[in-house]
Amino acid sequence: MPKRLLNINVIIFIFRIGNLLMDKKLISWMGVAITNHDFTPRGYQLEKRYFSTFIKADDIAFYVFCPYTTLLKFVESKKAKFPKKLHWEGLHKIHFILHKFGVAPAEEVIAEIKDYERKPKLKEFRELAIKLVAAHKDSVKPNENVLEYVEVRSEALGVHEKIPLVIDNHPVIEYFVEMVLPPSYEDQLRLTLYALLLEEKFNIDIDYGFAEYPLMKVSHKIQIDSDLRKDAITKRAEMEKIIIEKKVDREVPVDIKKCNTCYYQDECPYWRRGKIQFFV
User: What does the alpha-carbon distance between residue 4 and residue 115 come to, in Å, rounded to a whole number?
Assistant: First the structure.
């Protein structure tokens, strides 16, 4: 691939990484499955029902944060205002290459970045990519059992998800930030949904996943137990009730500071109308 294609700007660089990998015969492995109602997660019998819509793992995390997010997105068709995650797609690709193909191919990709001194965003990406490789240099080896963007559409769960990274059959959540936070309940639910989907797709048992901070070389191992499985399935059913009934039928105690961090704040009329009781 002509090197000049990598020198336009950081966005094009990230977009072109896939082509660069193809040129070097480093092919991503992806899978798609459309499943049915016969699937039963370990220990739980799902009702044989059809969901009105498919959700993503992030949607359940938002629901846990505030159930009004479900109403806003799926009933009122409002859009969240997400902060830009600069460089995350490119860093994910480097992270994937590290785990699947090893350090040398990742360093080759970084070496293709040219003219970064004149382009601050490209320079910043390069520095983060170098830090990412350095953090894993002594700990990763090529591993064929690494997948990215595994897509599963489950009718039994009413979930359609593209799981960004799977290592040795275990789902991984990536945070490309230069800090480390303890695993959140939302992380646990995301990984549980990922595990349920992978179990359904590959007919395997998955007992844990990871919330990983690759730039900091920190990986939290999260056990996916029966309580988390039950929580994920229960909360999916609660979301369906809101979508069908087009209302949230309970008080939602939240404080103003919490609302100010919500990605749906600009589109949410409920707290302004006093429908949510605030505890400050």
Answer: 10
* 125 neighbors 114 (Cβ within 8 angstroms): no
pLDDT tens digit string along 169-214?
A: 999 999 999 999 999 999 999 999 999 999 999 999 999 999 999 9
200 domain residue, yes or no: yes
Q: pTM of the entire structure?
A: 0.81
Q: Which tokens sit at 173?
A: 């959540």
Paired tokens of 154: 């489950």
Taking 3-state DSSP, the helix, strand and coil percentages for the chain, each rounded to the nearest 5, stand at 45, 15, 40
Nearest to 188 by CA among 225, 158, 219: 225
Q: For 43-82, how does the pLDDT look when each residue is reduced to its tens digit (9 = 90+)?
A: 555 555 568 889 999 999 999 999 999 999 999 999 998 8
- The edge-to-edge listing of strands for the beta sheet with 218-223 is 32-34, 146-154, 159-167, 170-174, 208-213, 218-223
**Domains contained in the chain, number:** 2
Q: Is there a single domain that holds both residue 201 and residue 155?
A: yes
> How buried is 274 (Cβ within 10 angstroms: 0-12 exposed, 13-18 middle, 19+ buried)?
exposed
Residue 277 lies in a domain: no
Decide which of 136, 153, 178 is a domain's last residue: 136
Instruction: Determine the longest span between alpha carbons in the chain, in angstroms.
Output: 59
What does the alpha-carbon distance between residue 60 and residue 56 come to, in Å, rounded to a whole number? Answer: 7
> Measured between alpha carbons, how far is 117 from 124 in angstroms, rounded to an integer?
10
